[in-house]
Amino acid sequence: MEFVDQSVKVREGEELVLKPVEEFLKDTIPGLEGTLAVEQFPSGFSNLTYMIRVGERELVLRRPPFGRKAKTAHDMGREYRILSALHPVYPYCPTPLVYSEDEAVMGCSFYVMERIKGIILRKDLPRGLEFKPHEARALCENLLDVQCELHGIDYRKIGLEDFGKPEGYVQRQVEGWSERYRAAQTDDAPDYEKVMAWLLEKMPGEIDKASIIHNDYKLDNVVLDPENPLNIIGVLDWEMATIGDPLMDLGSSLAYWVEEHDPDNLKLIRMMPTNMPGALTRKELIDRYVRRSGIAVEAFDFYYCFGLFRLAVIAQQIYYRFYHGQTKDSRFQMLIFAVQILEETALRVMERSDL
User: Fold this and answer.
1) Which of 58, 139, 232, 256 is a Cys-bridge partner for 218, taking CB atoms 3.0 to 4.6 Å apart?
2) Exposed e or buried b per residue across 109-135, where buried means at least 16 C-beta atoms within 10 angstroms of its C-beta
């Protein structure tokens, strides 16, 4: 049975003008021969991802979304740069091929990379693919270990010393995401003021060792080996990567992690099969991270709460585009409910926290 992630027909309003794209790719990527065909990977809510087939070759093209974009988001050049730096030392990165700022090609900057062909898990396991409890546990352990491996890379040795500003990272994140939420707030969205105030009050001190952080590391951003689905062969969607506090990265990852015994409202917004029998709990993931990384973790409530808030801001920014008619993607309409549920979850974390 076919479990490999599949592309589909391009969504209305997100089509590419094929002739300039084909001419550009054949001029810049050696060996491309044959007719160009384009489809789209339908998942994801941010940058648009297209499957480009030229003859037998399969490439992936990434470009920003249409409509309003956050000021510092969707920097294609930045995403291409980190792939180029990481690929030689972190084998899970796709191979970057070409980056362009020539708006004559498609009206925006974009880049192209080789496709990593494999399984990407979505909300539920595809029919016919099963993980026994011990296999689900092994997959979760591998997922955490690949994240730890990223955090262990010396970013200075691969030329990324100026890729981010680790000093003051946590404070900038709390203040910056708070500003973004207020800028994207719609009339039907909660105000999140209690959450933002709590995060400002409870900010931890600076961590001793900053690292490369993915900032959107989760189960549906990794590619699994079709021959052995417990094996991770790729990590995708590097648009928010930077240099910063690795515990903030882990907190952002765990914001997506919905467990079997979580409240029903949180289960409603589950996006990945993290509740399957045998899957690690958030606490087990944190404990494994401490053992694997050697980083002491105190008061993880802050990092998890921040992750929930940050996820809510991302959802609200995307919902803003739908609310104002800047996209026709019907998936975006339901994101307002995720924003509301994430606030309820963050408030529960705050109420139970010993901070």
Assistant:
1) 256
2) bbbbbebbebbbbeeebbeeeebeeee
Pick from 31-45, 84-98, 189-203: least confident: 31-45
Backbone torsions φ then ψ of 205, nearest 5 degrees:
-75, 180
String of DSSP letters for 36-103: EEEEE----SSSEEEEEEETTEEEEEEEPPSS---TT---HHHHHHHHHHHTTT-TTS--EEEEE--H
The enclosing H or E element of 114 equals strand 110-114
Is 187's pLDDT higher than 90? Answer: yes
Range(s) for CATH 3.30.200.20 in the chain?
Answer: 18-114
Task: Round to whole Å and give the CA distance between 73 and 125.
Answer: 31
The correct answer on CATH 3.90.1200.10 for the domain covering 133-352 is yes
- Selection from 50, 67, 243 nearest residue 153 by Cα: 243
State the maximum Cα–Cα separation within the chain, in Å, rounded to a whole number.
Answer: 62
Say which CATH topology domain 18-114 has. Phosphorylase Kinase; domain 1 (3.30.200)
Q: What confidence tens digit (pLDDT) does each residue in 20-51 have? A: 999 999 999 999 999 999 999 987 667 899 99
Strand, coil or helix: 224: strand
Statement: residue 65 has pLDDT above 80: yes
Alpha carbon 263 to its chain's center: 24
Positive/negative CA dihedral, 37, 40, 41, 44: positive
